[in-house]
Specification:
Its main location: membrane. The protein is mainly alpha-helical. Helices cover 82% and strands 0% of the residues.
Length: 241
């Protein structure tokens, strides 16, 4: 792998490949991402909102949900979906190419497999995951607002005033950076497991399992580390409410 990376020529990276991979990571994953965000938003709100109503803290509900979704839930849920849908796909594609000797064919044609296959997948993941994260965040807030209105009769105006009073550009940027890092790590792990597959089709399944499991574990660990350094010293967003 290190020898492959050492001879990368960035000028030979195929833009068409990048756009094709961006379509796989982004638009093709959008429906499942938004559907998951919609129901996670409602489930989370169903458990949290009634406690704030009991504390007579209705004006704080939107702000609390905004912080929770933007800083933690949306980035990590989007990353999990990417691992299950896209990361496993990357591993399966590259593993199949390895055992059918298509990677060797690229060498014969004078094409670096990293530049042609791996870099477009990495760039697509880095570029599209923040977009999916922000769309997931917006969907979760909308579903939370809907549930608050239908179940708890909370005026959407009160909800969204609370949302915008605790929504800061710094949090949006940090959430996007976290998603970019997740995209980089997931695509690197998925492609590495795919390219390390040899000999038989049985190893394709084993590589996919190893890719998904290792990606999940590393993303969860990384999520804690990033959250600690990004948000541990941040003042409470509820002070302005």
């Amino acid at each position: 792998m290190f020898n492959l990376f050492s001879c990368i020529n960035l000028n030979k990276i195929n833009l068409e490949n990048i756009f094709n991979q961006m379509e796989i990571v982004g638009p093709s994953s959008l429906a499942i991402n938004l559907l998951t965000a919609f129901f996670i938003g409602m489930v989370f709100s169903l458990q949290i909102v009634k406690e704030f109503i009991y504390l007579n803290a209705i004006p704080m509900i939107g702000g609390i949900l905004t912080i929770s979704f933007l800083r933690e839930l949306s980035p990590i849920l989007t990353a999990i979906i990417l691992i299950g849908r896209v990361g496993s796909c990357f591993t399966a594609e590259l593993a199949t190419m390895c055992i059918t000797e298509q990677i060797d064919a690229l060498y014969i044609l004078g094409i670096n497999p990293i530049s042609y296959l791996v870099i477009p997948r990495i760039l697509a993941s880095i570029l599209m995951l923040p977009v999916l994260n922000l769309l997931s965040f917006t969907t979760s807030l909308c579903s939370s607002s809907y549930l608050c209105f239908i179940v708890y009769n909370i005026d959407p105006n009160i909800f969204f005033i609370s949302v915008f009073s605790s929504l800061f550009l710094g949090d949006i940027i940090k959430s996007s950076i976290k998603s970019c890092i997740f995209g980089l790590i997931i695509s690197l792990i998925s492609c590495s497991w795919g390219l390390s597959t040899n000999f038989s089709t049985k190893e394709v399944g084993e590589s996919i399992i190893s890719s998904v499991v290792s990606s999940l574990v590393i993303v969860f660990i990384l999520d804690f580390i990033l959250s600690y350094f990004m948000f541990s010293n941040v003042d409470s967003a509820l002070k302005v409410m």
